[in-house]
Amino acid sequence: MRESEASAARARRHVVVTAAIAGLAGLLFGYDTGIIAGSLLLITPEFGLSDLAAGMVVGAVPIGAVAGAWIASTRADKYGRRRLILTSALVFIVGAVVSAISESASELILARILIGIGIGVASAVAPVYISEISPANIRGQLVTFFQLSVAVGILVAYLVGLAFADVDEGWRWMLGLGAVPAIALGLGILKLPPSPRWLLMKGDEAGAIESMRQIRPAGENAIVLEIQEIKSSMGEDTGKWRDLLRPAVKAALFVGLGLAILQQITGINTVIYYAPTIIQDAGISSASSAIFASLGVGIINVIMTVVALRLLDRVGRRDLLFIGVSGMSLSLFLLGLAFTLDTGTASSAVAIFSLMLFVSSFAISLGPIFWLLNAEIYPLEVRSRAASLGTMTNWLFNFIVSLTFLSLIDLLTRTGAFWLYGAIGLISLWFCWKFVPETNGRSLAQIDAIFQRRAKK
C-alpha cells in the first residue's frame, strides 16, 4: 500500500510540474504586457510618439498574437502541442532581441509583431496542453498555472521596469530581458511528455497510454478507462474548420468567444498596459514613482491569482465569475470617480485602490476562467481550432482596446472611459449568469455532453 501511495504521489507531482512548466508560456504574455507599461514612458519621448503611434507600439503585440493563434489553429494538431510551444519560445526570443536594438518606432513595431506571434502561439496552445494532461478534479488549478505565470510575468516586468526607469535608454534592457523567460520555457518544454489526447487523435494509443502513466496518480485500470473515455468522446471527423459549425460546437464557441471579448472590453489591458500612465495622471509625477506604485498592482495580481488557483476547483467557475466581475465593475466606477477629484493625494489614493480592486477581481474571475474554459469546453477533434479561434478573438479585442484607449480618453475624458468599461462589466455579469455552464469537477467528455444537450434545445 505504501509503495502504491508513493507511486501515486510521484505521478501527481509529475503532472503538477508538467503543468507548471507548460504554464511558463504565460510568462511571455505577462512579461511583455507589464514591461511595455513602464518602457512606454521612456520610448514615447525618445521617438516622439503621438497617442496613435504609442497605441501602435502597444497594439503591435496583439496583432501579431492574432496571427500566432491562427498558426496554432492548424499546426497544433499536425505537429503537436509541445513543438508549437517550443517554436513560440524561439520566436519570442528573436523578437525580444530585435526590439531591444530597434532604432526607430517602425522597427520597434515590427519586432513587437514578431513577439506577438510567439505569444499568440503560446497562449493558444499551452492552456489546451495543460487541460489535456490534467485530471478533472484539479484541472482548474493546473490550467490556472498559465494565468499565474501571466501575473508573475507582469510583476517581474514591473520590477525590471523600476530597476531601469532612470537608466539611459533603459527601455532597451527592459525589452531585451524578455528573452529570459522564453529561454526558460524552451528548455523546460523539451522535458515534457506529449499530450495523450493528441496522441490518440494521431492514432497512437500505445504512446497515449505511456504518456498517461507519467502524468496520472491512478492505477493501470483507471488509465485504460480514461483512454477509452477519451476515444468514445472523439467524433469521426478529423477536425476541419467546417466542424466548428456543428450545433454543439457552436454552442460552446458562443460561450468561449463571448468570454474572449468580454475579458478584454472590460478594460483589463488599459489597466495593465497603462497603469503607470494612469497613476501619473492621478497625481504622481515621476516615471520611477509611477512604476513603483504600479508594483502594488502587480503584487496583488499574483496574490489573487494564487487565491483563484486554490478556489477554482472548490468554489467553481460560475460563482467566482459572479464575485469577480461584480468587483471589476465597482472598481471601474470608482476609478472614474477618482478623476473627478482634484489632482493630489486623495485622487491618487482612490486611483491606486481602484486599480488594486480591479486587478484582484479580474485575477479570480475573467483572468483565469476565460483561459480555462477556452481550453476545456470544445470536443477534442476541433479543440485546437476552436481554442485558437477564441485566442485570436481575445487578442483582436486586446488590440482594439489598447489602440483606442488613449483616444477614448480624449473623446469621453478619463472618467467617461472608465465608467463605460464599468457598464460593460455589468453586461459581462449578465452574460456569465445566462450562458456560462459550471464545468468544475467534470471530465472533458462530460463537458462536451453539456453542449450536446444545449444544441438539442
Written description of the protein model:
The protein is mostly helical and about 450 residues long. The chain has one domain (about 1-190, about 235-455): Growth Hormone, Chain: A (Up-down Bundle), CATH 1.20.1250.20. It has 19 helices and no strands. Helix 4 runs antiparallel to helix 8, helix 6 runs antiparallel to helix 14 and helix 13 runs antiparallel to helix 16. It is globular and about 65 Å long. The N and C termini lie far apart (about 50 Å).
Features:
Growth Hormone, Chain: A, 457 residues, 19 helices, single chain, mainly alpha
Number of strands: 0
Round the Cα radius of gyration to an integer and report it: 21 Å
Largest sheet: none
Oligomeric status of the shown chains? single chain
- N-C termini distance: 48 Å
What is the CATH third-level topology name?
Growth Hormone, Chain: A
User: How do the helices and strands follow one another from N- to C-terminus?
Assistant: HHHHHHHHHHHHHHHHHHH
Annotation field: number of helices:
19
Q: Brief description of this entry?
A:
With 457 residues, the chain is mainly alpha-helical. It has 19 helices and no strands. It has one domain (2-192, 235-456): MFS general substrate transporter like domains (Growth Hormone, Chain: A, Up-down Bundle), CATH 1.20.1250.20.
Which helices and strands appear, and what pairs or packs with what?
Layout lengths: L1 H22 L1 H23 L3 H29 L1 H20 L4 H29 L5 H26 L5 H7 L2 H11 L6 H6 L3 H11 L4 H14 L13 H19 L2 H14 L5 H25 L5 H22 L6 H19 L2 H11 L3 H56 L8 H13 L1
